[in-house]
Specification:
Elements (H helix, E strand, L loop, with lengths): L2 H27 L6 H27 L6 H19 L4 H30 L2 H33 L9
Helix pairs in contact: 1-2, 1-3, 1-4, 2-5, 4-5
Length: about 160
């Protein structure tokens, strides 16, 4: 496989990832027990995620390719199963935030890799689109990262204090 073919394959993965995360974000945006800032950011990021999928699909078409139904279906099923796994846990909110935080960082890493490959392959349009997507992913990860300590403290019913070991 040459670099262009690899980029197309990775863009198909990215498309599947975005479509799979839509379901997770839909669930999260409807949660009344999420901190307001996370619920607002999640609603915004759901729309961004839909746009990301559309942007990646347009990139694939511009490269003479299309999305992968198999990869997209597998991603949707995987994310649905992950959501079912946290539903039965007493700390569902915390687990959902951890999964979301990890997913954002995975997306960041994936788009950085695609950006680097596109720079090497001389595909400036792919670089530009990935940079735009990266900004949204980094913002969402930062929002979750800022709120996570508060959610842990709230879950434990504690205020932040220094504890003796």
């Amino acid at each position: 496989m040459n670099a262009r073919d690899e980029i197309i394959d990775w863009l198909r993965d990215a498309y599947a990832m975005e479509r799979g995360l839509e379901m997770v974000l839909k669930k999260a945006s409807g949660r009344s027990n999420y901190p307001h800032i996370v619920r607002f950011a999640t609603e915004k990021h759901l729309e961004e995620t839909r746009q990301h999928a559309d942007m990646v699909e347009a990139l694939l078409k511009s490269l003479g390719s299309n999305t992968s139904t198999v990869k997209t279906s597998a991603s949707v099923v995987t994310n649905a199963l992950a959501g079912l796994g946290t539903m039965v846990m007493h700390d569902e909110l915390l687990k959902d935030l951890l999964v979301s935080y990890a997913a954002e960082h995975f997306e960041i890493a994936a788009y950085r890799a695609i950006t680097t490959a596109a720079e090497i392959a001389g595909l400036p349009n792919v670089v530009d689109v990935c940079h735009k997507i990266l900004l949204n992913e980094e913002q969402m990860a930062a929002t979750i990262g800022q709120v996570l300590p508060q959610v842990v403290q709230g879950y434990l019913g504690e205020q932040p204090t220094a504890r003796a070991a």
